[in-house]
Amino acid sequence: MNAAMNAKPTGSSSPLDPDALGAPLAHAFRLLQEPPAPPGERRPPAHRIRTDPEAVGEDLLKLVLTVVELLRQLIERQALRRVDSGDLTDAQEEELGATLLALHDRMAELCSEHGYTLEDLNLDLGPLGTLLPPAG
Fold first, then answer.
1. What is the structure's pLDDT at 122?
2. Cα–Cα distance measured from residue 118 to residue 110, given in angstroms and rounded to the nearest whole number
3. How distant, in Å, are the alpha carbons of 17, 34, 44, 51 from that of 48?
4. pLDDT for the residue 14
5. For residue 17, which of 34, 44, 65, 115 sits 20 to 30 Å off, Cα-Cα?
């Protein structure tokens, strides 16, 4: 590892001191940059950032819907674990199921109102795959 990354803060440098973090962050950024294309190979142009207010608002809305959908799916998985382990009464299972179904339906309605599907909310994280598990 780089010595700058392993160095302990000295003097009055605090953990949030930008000067103490600058060199390791710059080094990490250089390591994460895409390597140059081999000679003769053309790469597609980089994605452009849309900065008009309407596009920013739509992107923010999509991000919020994505976070809510991720949380809904996590809650649903936790509920299934509790049902499988027998932690809930029959009445609690029924109430939980009805609540999760209503939440799913409301998410689908919100997506539809704004021109999305639930599948549109699944962000592509590149080499990590997609944010949400495949439907099924």
1. 83
2. 9
3. 32, 17, 12, 9
4. 46
5. 34
